[in-house]
């Protein structure tokens, strides 16, 4: 599943969409990109978390878009993956540019 958010109702098993996908939050797009890179390197959450100096649970929450990491944590994680900040932001920007459909703007 790509970086896309759904406005919906959470159930015990899933999210029931109420409408079409909307543009993802930055933290969701970053998390998705970090997870893709980690999996492409065939590394485990535990391996990357240890290299970055964060807990496995926290890294998992970042990858799933549940946590908004500080710049220091983000730097540690992208560094543990051998990425520069410009590499990460370029990938995230490209993934966001590929999204079509409605865009949700915050007030």
* Mean of residue pLDDT values: 82
CATH domain topology of the domain at 25-96? 434 Repressor (Amino-terminal Domain)
Rg on CA atoms, Å: 14 Å
Report the major sheet: 2 strands, antiparallel
Distance between the termini: 28 Å
Helix segment tally: 5
Per DSSP E runs of 2 or more residues, the count of β-strands stands at 2
Beta content = 5-15%
Strand order of the largest sheet: 1-2
List segments where confidence is low: pLDDT < 50 over at least 5 consecutive residues: 1-11, 16-20
Question: Which of globular, elongated, flat, extended, rod-shaped describes the shape?
Answer: globular
Classify the helix fraction into a percent range: 40-55%
CATH architecture of the domain at 25-96: Orthogonal Bundle
SSE order, one letter for each helix or strand: EEHHHHH
Oligomeric status: single chain
Main CATH class of the domain at 25-96: Mainly Alpha
